[in-house]
Specification:
Helix content is about 35%, strand content about 15%. By secondary structure, it is an alpha/beta fold. It has 2 domains: about 10-90 and about 210-465, Alpha-Beta Barrel (TIM Barrel); about 100-200, Roll (CBS-domain), CATH 3.10.580.10. The strands form 6 sheets. Strands 4-5-13-14-15-16-17-18 form an 8-stranded parallel barrel, surrounded by 7 helices. Strands 6-7-8-9 form a 4-stranded mixed β-sheet. Strand 10, helix 6 and strand 11 form a beta-alpha-beta unit. It is globular, with a radius of gyration of 25 Å. It starts with 11 loop residues before the first strand and ends in an 8-residue tail after the last helix. Bound molecules: inosinic acid (IMP).
Length: about 475
């Protein structure tokens, strides 16, 4: 039996080229996540419950990447997380929150805290605009039983815009009228949207962020391939999610292929990333089923024990090298998922043919990852766990198995608290930009033309700092 050799990131290096790049700022890191979604940086945060919920997804999108909200919760909780990201910034809020004229100030305050929103359009049927109530209206009102209708700015005093108003005209109206909110209505005064000064400011300040056509941050969400997956996919789509990511350990399976077909049939305009796979045939089958991106990685994850539990897997660099030509031929971007330990791995993954990398472990333990930091011997840590670890399997909403019936393919770990995720991203991007200048690559596509060489154990030893006592 012929047994081929397969390589992982540490087995190779890239050969430097004569570089015409004068500064690391001259390189462009934009790339495709899927056929129709582009990102400004090639980093995606993993759909793990210790990595990506709305806080991480917001931070990732603000940096120019994207976060994929995990699915280890009921549908409404996942939808809620997606909505939090989509509401973080917009140019036009399409479906603004409203409050009834007969609500009391106490109810206003309660709703305000619950929704994290300090002002509401006033409407009794949710459609006709009757007024607006903002933080300024309530600030000096001490009586909590006061009705909204008695403190709101009423319809006849409202400044409103039409739904087709341009951002520049909206800015002018906000400035000239010294207001912070501009409700958008049709000729019958039916609510059609809301533009706020804060949103316009946010949008013009963060040009680097990943945004949709309405200026809202991009976000993805994971779905499974069994049970309520279609209901979940539909609910997430209605919540405004930009991309659905199939979350299944063995993506080259009838279950996954069927789920992709069902989702694409029901939601033809939704971008779907299929995976995980580790072979060219896997990519071909998922592409034929209709995916808009493929996710590659069987067993490289930092918390993953699939390979030692099952004996199956493909070292990640070879998996990417084998699949990339198929993805290129069909114009379907490749997400290299798992196994990134340092910025060199990101550079190697992209040079091997990936368009983005998905990172879990490296982004866990950050300020934005879910869960509190815990103290251990005077240091702060956060928990990182595999989604097929024992505790994750036991805490699934639909879990019926007892602990002794579960064969884990992941572990639970303690990771040092790392501070804001943007610092980690900055370190990775710094390494990528430097790498691109060694490879004379102004773009990620040019990086793919670089030559790999295999190294030996002594080459590996030489690569890291050596013969020092590291401080
Ligand atoms: P990391 O960046 O090396 O930590 O890898 C993250 C990736 O590991 C995720 O995006 C998943 O594809 C994968 N993964 C997450 N949980 C598990 C698990 O329990 N077993 C195997 N792989 C996992």
């Amino acid at each position: 039996m012929y047994i081929p050799t397969a390589l992982s990131y540490d087995d190779v290096l890239l050969v430097p080229k004569k570089s015409a790049i004068k500064s690391r700022h001259d390189v462009k890191m934009n790339t495709q996540l899927t056929k129709n979604i582009s990102l400004k940086i090639p980093i995606v945060s993993a759909n793990m419950d210790t990595v990506t919920e709305s806080t991480m997804a917001i931070a990732m999108a603000l940096e120019g990447g994207i976060g994929i909200i995990h699915r280890f919760c009921d549908i409404s909780s996942q939808v809620h997380e997606v909505k939090k990201v989509k509401r973080k910034q917009n140019i036009v809020i399409g479906n603004p929150f409203t409050i009834n004229t007969k609500a009391t100030l106490a109810e206003f305050k309660e709703r305000s805290t619950e929704l994290g929103c300090s002002s509401f359009l006033v409407s009794d049927d949710g459609r006709e605009l009757l007024g607006i109530i903002t933080r300024r209206d309530v600030v000096f009102c001490g009586d909590d039983s006061t009705l909204v209708k008695n403190i709101m700015t009423p319809k006849d005093k409202l400044i409103v815009g039409s739904i087709n108003i341009s951002t520049d005209d909206a800015k002018k109206m906000l400035r000239e009228n010294k207001i912070e909110k501009l409700p958008l209505v049709d000729e019958d005064f039916q609510i059609k949207g809301l533009i706020t000064e804060k949103d316009i400011m946010r949008n013009s300040n963060n040009v680097q962020a990943s945004k949709d056509k309405l200026g809202r941050l991009l976000v993805g969400a994971a779905v499974g391939v069994r049970g309520d997956y279609l209901e979940r996919a539909v609910a997430l789509t209605e919540a405004g999610v930009d991309v659905l990511v199939l979350d299944i350990a063995h993506g080259h399976s009838d279950n996954a292929i069927e789920a992709i077909k069902v989702i694409k049939r029901a939601l033809p305009n939704m971008e779907v990333i299929g995976g995980n796979i580790a072979t060219a045939q896997g990519a071909l089958d998922l592409i034929e089923a209709g995916v808009d991106g493929v996710k590659v990685g069987i067993g490289p994850g930092s918390i993953c024990t699939t390979r030692i539990t099952t004996g199956f897997g493909v070292p990640q660099l070879s998996a990417i090298l084998n699949i990339a030509p198929v993805c290129k031929k069909y114009g379907v971007p490749l997400v290299a998922d798992g196994g990134i330990k340092q910025s060199a791995d990101l550079v190697k993954a992209l040079a091997a043919g990936a368009d983005t990398v998905m990172m879990g472990g490296q982004l866990s333990g950050t300020e934005e990852s879910p869960g509190p930091a815990i103290n251990y011997k005077g240091r702060q840590y956060k928990i990182s766990r595999g989604m097929a670890s024992l505790t994750a399997a036991l805490s699934r909403p639909d879990s019926k198995e007892k602990h002794h019936q579960i064969t884990p393919e992941g572990i639970e770990a303690r990771v040092p608290y790392k501070g804001p995720v943007k610092n980690i991203i900055a370190r990775y991007l710094g390494g990528l930009k430097s790498g691109m200048s060694y490879g004379n690559a102004k773009t990620i596509s040019e990086l793919k033309e670089c030559q790999f060489i295999r190294i030996t154990n002594s080459g590996m030893r030489e690569s890291d700092s050596h013969d020092n006592e590291v401080l």
